[in-house]
């Protein structure tokens, strides 16, 4: 689904996606997007413009994320300020693309988001030779089991399910510890530090990167 009040941008994105094997639905505002999604099957991916009259892209992402945890959300905007990125991630956006953008980059990001969500839906994530199984809550490396505390497991599974995706600190705290968590951000930092010590990059071929001012993401190499 393409949500943008600019008909020219909708047409551009539509043609790019159609030429790369996607089927598309176009809507001009956030309210119409919510109505269409509520009335039928949710799309596999929503591409949302930030600056729209009425319900803007931030509000739409927040509303969608409340009801659809496993719906990939890609935001488009003419602005690239850090504050907009932080707000977008905190509202549940998965990725952020600033206009003007290259057509190939849009298609690559759309495909990457779909791959990430399919990984999470499987409940089994593999990063190199590390397997993280949420069905049994086991972490194995080359067949050997790695015992880790539950919160570290949940944090690792979350980050590894979406390699390359940046999660805001608030989003991670809410997803792992719950909206009523009464601790502070230091708890998240401690758990990230423990995961880094437990899984050194030179052995496991991934690292958890700090994105200054935003949060964390897991990167494979």
How would you explain this protein's 3D organization?
With 221 residues, the chain is α/β, with parallel strands linked by helices. It has two domains: 2-118, Response regulator (Rossmann fold); 123-220, Orthogonal Bundle (Arc Repressor Mutant, subunit A). The chain contains nine helices and twelve strands. The chain has a five-stranded parallel beta sheet with strand order 2-1-3-4-5, with helices on both faces. A hairpin with a 4-residue loop joins strand 7 (130-133) and strand 8 (138-141). Helix 2 runs parallel beside helix 3 (57-67) and helix 6 (150-161) packs across helix 8. It starts with a strand and ends with a strand.
Task: Jot down its keywords.
alpha/beta, Arc Repressor Mutant, subunit A, globular, single chain, five-stranded parallel β-sheet, 2 domains, Rossmann fold, four-stranded antiparallel β-sheet, 221 residues, 12 strands
CATH topology of the largest domain: Rossmann fold
> Which stretches are low in confidence, meaning pLDDT under 50 for 5 or more residues running?
none
What is the residue-averaged pLDDT? 89
Taken together, the total number of domains comes to 2
Fold blueprint:
Layout: E1 2-3, H1 7-18, E2 26-27, H2 30-39, E3 46-49, H3 57-67, E4 73-77, H4 82-90, E5 95-98, H5 103-122, E6 124-127, E7 130-133, E8 138-141, E9 144-146, H6 150-161, E10 167-168, H7 169-177, H8 185-198, H9 201-204, E11 206-211, E12 215-220
Parallel strand pairs: 1-2, 1-3, 3-4, 4-5
Antiparallel strand pairs: 6-7, 7-8, 8-9, 10-12, 11-12
